Amino acid sequence: GNSVTQMEGPVTLSEEAFLTINCTYTATGYPSLFWYVQYPGEGLQLLLKATKADDKGSNKGFEATYRKETTSFHLEKGSVQVSDSAVYFCALTGYGNKLVFGAGTILRVKS
Amino acid sequence: GAGVSQSPRYKVAKRGQDVALRCDPISGHVSLFWYQQALGQGPEFLTYFQNEAQLDKSGLPSDRFFAERPEGSVSTLKIQRTQQEDSAVYLCASSFRRTGADYGYTFGSGTRLTVV
């Protein structure tokens, strides 16, 4: 079945540092890919998505490109802020109408 | 409402007790999903409704888990005879589309269940 592997955390960065969180996937067919973010005490929020190969999703300064050749969807941001501290989940569409999530990566940004 | 509302926010249950978790989706949303999120893990699919029809319950871990959405809006996830391994955050999500996965969902804040 479809599955997602993302880099283990926590990732600790200083403010204004460059962020990369790696995500690779295994899938049959052509799934859509997502990044969700979970801020402390809040529910999951859709951060960005890409529905086909070479698409780039972007939102709030975050970007990720759907790379079919490397089965990857790495999350990047050029300059992180303390307010970006959260748990980030990579996900893809599985069989039927469900989402399949990775284990999540904790990001801590220090001022 | 403006978002997906779940109640209670926290629930402590004694082992063997039955619990009921409620989800109020966004008004008019056709699709409703339940996910289970164990500590330090990503959410895992439990079940999916389209209106009042439960179209997929393949993720329910045992026959102690039961979900319903009788009028196609509010949904209840019931866990009978709770066990310690049921301790997790239970997330509800909804989408206005019948095939919502490609468009993402709106998640509630979840119910944290602790079985003691």
Q: Measured on Cα atoms, how large is the radius of gyration of chain B?
A: 13 Å
Number of helices of chain B: 0
State the shape of chain A: globular
Q: Tell me, what's the shape of chain B?
A: globular
Q: Sheet with the most strands of chain B? A: 7 strands, mixed
Tally of DSSP β-strands of chain B: 11
Return Rg of chain A in Å: 13 Å
SSE sequence of chain B, one letter per element: EEEEEEEEEEE
Using a beta-carbon cutoff below 8 angstroms, give the protein chain pair with the largest interface and the number of residues from each chain. A-B, 25 and 29 residues
Q: What are the low-pLDDT stretches of chain B, counting only 5+ consecutive residues below 50?
A: none
Mean pLDDT of chain B: 93
Order of helices and strands of chain A: EEEEEEEEEEEE
* Number of distinct beta strands of chain A: 12
Oligomer: heterodimer
Largest sheet of chain A: 6 strands, mixed
Structural class by helix and strand composition of chain A? mainly beta
The portion of residues forming beta strands of chain B comes to: over 45%
How would you summarize what this structure contains?
The complex is a heterodimer of chains A (111) and B (116). With 111 residues, chain A is mostly beta strands.
Account of the 3D structure:
The complex is a heterodimer of chains A (111) and B (116). Chain A is an all-beta fold and 111 residues long. Chain A has strands at residues 3-6, 11-14, 19-21, 23-26, 33-38, 44-50, 56-59, 62-65, 75-77, 86-93, 99-101, 105-110. Chain B is mostly beta strands and 116 residues long. Chain B has no helices and eleven strands. In chain B, strands 2, 4, 5, 6, 9, 10 and 11 form a seven-stranded mixed sheet that branches. Chain B has a four-stranded antiparallel sheet with strand order 1-3-8-7, with no helix packed on it. In chain B, 38% of the residues are buried. The chains are: A mainly beta (111), B mainly beta (116).
Show the helix and strand layout.
The complex is a heterodimer of chains A (111) and B (116).
Chain A (H helix, E strand, L loop, with lengths): L2 E4 L4 E4 L4 E3 L1 E4 L6 E6 L5 E7 L5 E4 L2 E4 L9 E3 L8 E8 L5 E3 L3 E6 L1
Parallel strand pairs in A: 2-12
Antiparallel strand pairs in A: 1-4, 3-9, 5-6, 5-10, 7-8, 8-9, 10-11, 10-12
Chain B lengths: L4 E3 L2 E4 L5 E6 L6 E7 L6 E7 L2 E4 L8 E4 L6 E5 L8 E8 L10 E2 L3 E5 L1
Parallel strand pairs in B: 2-11
Antiparallel strand pairs in B: 1-3, 3-8, 4-5, 4-9, 5-6, 7-8, 9-10, 9-11
